[in-house]
Amino acid sequence: MEADIITDLRSKLKEVEEERLKAAQYGLQLVESQNELQNQLDKCRNEMMTMTENYEQEKYTLQREVELKSRMLESLSSECEAVKQQQKMHLEKLEEQLSRRHGQEVNELKNKLEKLKAELDEARLNEKQLKHKVDHQKELLSCKSEEMRMMSERVHESMSSEMLGLQMELTEMESVKTALKEEVNELQYRQEQLELLNNNLLRQVDRLKEEKQEREKEAVSYCNALEKARVANQDLQVQLDQALQQALDPSSKGNSLFAEVEDRRAAMERQLISVKVKYQSLKKQNAFNREQMQRMKLQIATLLQMKGSQTEFEQQERLFAMLEQKNGEIKHLLGEIRNLEKFKSLYENMESKPSASSGVLEDNTYYTDLLQIKLDNLNKENESTKGELSLQRMKALFESQRALGIERKLFANERLFQISQSENMKLRAKLDELRLKYEPEEKIDVPVLKKRREVLPVDVATPKDICASSALEEVYRLPTQEEESQSCANDVGDNLELEKTVSVNTPVVSLSPHKNLPMDVQPAKEKKRVKLIGVPVEFKNGHERQNNLPSKRAL
User: Which of 72, 103, 120, 457 makes the best surface tag, with the fewest CB within 10 Å?
Assistant: First the structure.
């Protein structure tokens, strides 16, 4: 038994060892396969890295090429634009030259044509005058020949000496008459020639006016071109000055800190020059804007007066339309009354007929009584509805009268508001004139930079900050746009306050020029202040007219 157990155990041990060997072999095979897979994975990873590096390199090179191509395209496009601008300027110059030549040729041809027309008119007038003279001479010759024939016939006849004397006087008077006629004709000819000369001179004046306008246009174009050339010349001069400063500056050749300071100083000087130019231009623009505001205020006052008259016309038209509407309603009601009267007469006739026939008939039936009762009820309802309708009409009429009264009051208030607004604008315009007259702008002395020793601080401010601070200090001395807008807003507020005072019909108004101004715009010196205490005469007259308007309309 024990031998069998031992053999079984040995066989099992052999089997376990064989299985262990097989497992070890399988484990070795798995490790080898895993190593092979790891090697393959490393190879694949290396290949991917190389490929990505190559792709990145290609991408970078392509980006560089694209950037270069884009820069080349930009440079080419800029060159193309520059060439286009040059060609455009050249074409514009050629067009201007051609237009000028064409205008000169046209003017020359016009002058020649005018001269030829004048000569032709003179020739025609001379020809006409000569023809008239020839005809007159022919008539005189025929008259003289007839007189000579008559004289010869009378001489042959027996005539007394007195008759001969009278005949001689008659011939002398006729000769004087012909001489006077010739003088009159000469004067007429002279008048016609003078009229022709006057017409020619008028034509020449018109032509000279046209030439003057053309020359003015050319002068304006020349001025614009000169201004452009001046601006370009200034830019070139600034560039030339910069180049000369850079060439003459010995510190710019080295790499010292003084060169940087000198560059900053030059930049600040250039910025100061530009700020001065901007300040002068802004000063001129401010003066121009003030003048424009003054004109606009006067125009607004006149427009408000025109608007008041226009509102009166619109109110009149609206009242006429309402009157026509009420007349139409009255006609409609009259037609309804006539129809009701006709219906009433027909109803009375219908009632009279049954009453006449009732004497013949013995008694009324039940249905006729029922219809009569219904008819009476309907008549009562009709009367009640008529009363209600009349009440509603009376209410509507009362409401319309009330609405008309409110509209009249509203129109009167609007008219007073417009009058007060126009007078307020006029007063503000006068106030601005007085302010410009008695409060001139103070001259601002721009400090000139003096030469001093350069000291290099530790914290050096940039030239942009210094320029900005100096520009702000200079600009703050002037009244800003915000202050002007505040003054405009205060003007609107004063207008509203004045509207309220007009609606309440206040008798006394006090006005001072600096009351409505903001604090920043108050005058700097006491000597230049102008205080207007009380109300001007025009303002008082305007308020008296405003107070008298409602009383006149009420009457």
Answer: 457
The tens digit of pLDDT for each residue in 319-378 reads 777 778 877 888 888 888 888 777 777 777 776 655 545 454 445 577 777 777 888 888
Q: How far apart are the first and last CA of the chain?
A: 155
pLDDT band at 389 (very low <50, low <70, confident <90, very high): confident
Tokens 């309440």 belong to which residue?
Answer: 504
- Is the Cβ–Cβ distance between 234 and 116 less than 8 Å? no
Is 68 inside any structural domain? no
Does some domain include residue 421? yes
Of 522 and 160, more confident? 160
Q: How far apart, in whole angstroms, are the C-alpha atoms of residue 517 and residue 383? A: 71
The two tokens of residue 488 are 């405009």
Q: How far apart are the C-alpha atoms of 105 and 99, rounded to whole Å?
A: 10
Whole domain around residue 410: which residue ranges? 369-438
The mean per-residue pLDDT over the stretch 379-393 comes to 82
pLDDT, tens digit, 9 for 90 and up, residues 94-121: 988 898 888 888 888 988 888 888 888 8
Q: According to the model, what pLDDT value does residue 308 have? A: 60
Integer Cα distance of 434 and 447 in angstroms: 31
How many whole angstroms separate alpha carbon 505 and alpha carbon 417? 11
Please tell me the distance from the alpha carbon of residue 419 to that of residue 412, in angstroms, as a whole number: 11
For residue 552, give every residue at least 6 positions away whose Cβ sits within 8 Å of its Cβ, in sequence order, or none: none
401 in a structural domain: yes
For residues 299 and 48, the model is more confident at: 48
Whether the CA torsion 416, 418, 421, 422 is positive or negative: it is negative
Category of 518 on φ-ψ map: left (φ > 0), alpha (ψ -120 to 50) or beta = beta
Q: For the chain, what is the domain count?
A: 1
Query: Looking at the predicted structure, is the pLDDT value of residue 187 above 60?
Result: yes
Residue 513: burial class (beta carbons within 10 Å; 0-12, 13-18, 19+): buried
d(CA 279, CA 443): 12
Whole-prediction pTM:
0.29
| Side-chain half-sphere exposure of 382, counting CA atoms within 13 A | 8
Amino acid identity, position 107: N
Average pLDDT over every residue of 192-214: 86
Flag whether 46 is in a domain.
no
Q: Which of 223, 214, 220 is nearest to 106 (CA)?
A: 214
For residue 313, the number of C-alpha atoms closer than 13 Å in the C-beta half-sphere is 5
Closest by alpha carbon to 499, among 455, 439, 543?
Answer: 543
Residues 429, 298 contacting (CB under 8 angstroms): yes
User: How confident is the model at residue 60, as a pLDDT?
Assistant: 78
Q: Measuring CA to CA, how many Å separate 145 from each of 149, 172, 177, 257, 351?
A: 6, 15, 17, 121, 115
Q: Which long-range contacts (CB under 8 A, 24 or more apart) does 475-482 make?
A: 475/279, 475/282, 477/444, 478/282, 478/283, 478/286, 479/286, 479/520, 479/521, 480/520
pLDDT of 546 above 50: no
